[in-house]
């Protein structure tokens, strides 16, 4: 071995020893490991990154305050790349190799659905984030807790709003990716329950530059309002085409319109659309959260539900960990006992206050109800103003059928 | 507003995009019998570079366009020197080189991820996007520019192929590479030209469609696939057949969406392509190539 | 000893013994899952190797057959209440039937046209699985229950051993075909269709047989994947699967006997190893694939064969190894 090689080795050894020493003093107790599997690249990267950052803020705040009962929280991070199989493999890795206490992640339906059976198999709690597909929580899986709203809840919110504003006939337009298809399926169901009929329905491929055939059919229909279920860039195209072909009907767009990209591309065409959101910007704690978020990540952000869901899931996990029985199980050293205690802890406590929803609403979990978001007081509609720049509270008196 | 003409116009717009990618694919295929799996990535890089130079660095339009073109051409040379030439030198068959272009596509996406991140970005428009009325149609300049670019590149390709001696050499290589070589035609030059020209076509298409499609690093794959289908439907051997295939797919998509079921338009198109290939194995206008074999 | 090695029998025995002992050495179910997936992809790749590596017919419909197999298996159980033991052969038969029906007209197409036509078929299938939500369960897919019989239910380890045995049988058949009469007919079709025809090979029959066989390999792999994942969803038939498959072919070595297994090991484990590189992962993956393609034309199994030859360097091989393949095109 050369001299430099030896030197390097020695320096390396020294650094290692120092790290160990520092770690020893800081971590007087063993760290608690939690696992994040989020889609930080691939098709669902916008939402994945946001919820990952939200979760990270919760964990960092807890660590800065000295951890939970003296235990630091160690976050093990995997990028699921919006790939179901990769996410499932990471889930098994979290459960078996990393000895994590729980898994937090799952934004689009595919990866979330793939992680679910793995979590059930290894008996590890899985806090699912914004994946909206309804049937994910239809059969209660013992280890699953969902924090985001279901597509059905978005649909209930649209249906209630449209019903209340006097709409009877609507048109749907959606992209042919899973998100668009799933959303349209539930929308049909709940609109029907409110006596609103779907008089036109169009799907489109996200690689199509011109959507006038679809929009033309919407225009020709006697729909009083248009519901759009897009991804950001194609949603902007829908809005622009609606504008260009002078469809002139009120428009409701799904959550994806909260993302800056859609409004930036659509510009003035996005003004006046209604978007369901589960973040009530009137709440002081929500405002404080977004200020902290902007400070932590150094970029301007709009109040979307994704970081809030990640943060809430993290906060619930931390709260439950701090429960004496759960903490006792964690300190007992048996990871399986600790996981069971965590799950039972969530069920025992049942309701949790979070940043989603209106001030009065809260998450509630039970043995046969693994979907935390309530149907009522959860959605707040918001609208776009100033050429796509701002999200502001809407004036619902103008949101009525044209005749 | 006449529905049929609106549908036709929309189909021609989408078809122009597919046709431009199909044209690019076919140019390379004609020169060296390789299907370039990375063709859509040239479009993606065109779009993303436009964002980089026009929005991020805020350069003036001509400068930004030149730089974007530079990036795309550099990428074409990288594809030729790092993938095509080493594999060809080893005598690898075209399908293996196709897998090589796939590796290049993945690498390009990996690099783009580092530069632009995973999110959808908005792309600055170079032409006004305000709606305007033309006869029975409502359109905008950006959209018209796509169709214009399609026609222009088609014309340019025709001019190069049929009105220059270099084009004669390209056509000769397309008909029979070995005889062309014996006639003293330097096929390596033709291949390089094909890579550079098709990269230019795709890159500029990227700049034009960006404001409509939005910029995301994974849009390339969808466009590559549509371009493939265009080229296969029309006939890979001729750039004009490939371009026509693109128009046919675009118009069929619009008509199915307009008069039939828009949800199933895409699977139906694939089914139609499959059926057509059953009957005409070398594409609708592929007699030329069928005869050559 | 050496001839045994070359014929691959010894190697298969060694692989199977190693695979059967492996679970004892693995510390976790996660690792068991990964090695199970290796066998799934190995099965998928064996079919592709027969079809493309040996017969020279490229198909981009392998992932569609993979998905149809898994969907058939899941839906026969979930929708019709069949037992898994009936659903499994039925699903494989369905896939074989579909492959025969589309194979007959499609196999008239050559090279890129065949690739694109089969790609159109897979895109159509994926489009349907995503859109026809009432039938296929949409993007969330369909759950696949663990195989049970009376009180007995198949454990993860049991599933793994089953997969090893199925894959080993698959490998034996794969190698037997390659070195047998059919294998030579297949290579003749690959190298010169007209020539093969004039020598009395029924080209259409050979192509169709291999196409169906490859689809069956894919279906068995897909069912295995469904059992390992406990569910099936549209991603089974999507682009990443065909990218993985082509990568296995390139990394393992096209047209070789053990390429599918070696390639599958690399392709399944690489993303796990690359996970720590975060954003760099995609770039590294693409670069590695390119490097393999350019510098190791016969893949890892080509490298191993060269080492093997060096190890037993007594005389040149009696028969040209099968590894003289499509990738090389004879330029060895």
What does this structure look like?
The complex is a heterotrimer of chains A (403), B (293) and C (332). By secondary structure, chain A is an alpha/beta fold. Helices cover 46% and strands 16% of the residues of chain A. A 5-stranded parallel β-sheet of chain A has the order 2-1-3-4-5, with helices on both faces. Chain B has 293 residues and is mostly helical. Chain B has one domain: ABC transporter involved in vitamin B12 uptake, BtuC (Orthogonal Bundle). In chain B, 77% of the residues lie in helices and 2% in strands. Chain B is built from 12 helices and 2 strands; from the N terminus they run H-H-H-H-E-E-H-H-H-H-H-H-H-H. Chain B has helices at residues 3-32, 39-56, 61-89, 94-116, 141-163, 165-175, 177-182, 187-213, 219-234, 239-259, 265-279, 287-292, and strands at 132-134, 137-139. In chain B, helix 3 (61-89) packs antiparallel against helix 4. Chain C contains 15 helices and 4 strands. Chain C is globular, with a radius of gyration of 20 Å. Chain C has a single domain (36-146, 154-311), classed as ABC transporter involved in vitamin B12 uptake, BtuC (Orthogonal Bundle). Chain C has helices at residues 2-7, 9-25, 29-54, 62-78, 84-106, 111-131, 133-136, 156-179, 181-191, 193-198, 203-229, 239-252, 259-274, 281-295, 299-311, and strands at 142-143, 148-149, 152-153, 231-232. Chain C is mainly α. The chains are: A alpha/beta (403), B mainly alpha (293), C mainly alpha (332). The interface between B and C is large, with 48 and 47 residues. Chain C: It is found in: Cell membrane. Chain C: The chain crosses the membrane at residues 37-55, 64-82, 88-107, 114-133, 159-178, 210-229, 241-270, 282-300. Chain C: One of its GO terms (molecular function) is branched-chain amino acid transmembrane transporter activity.
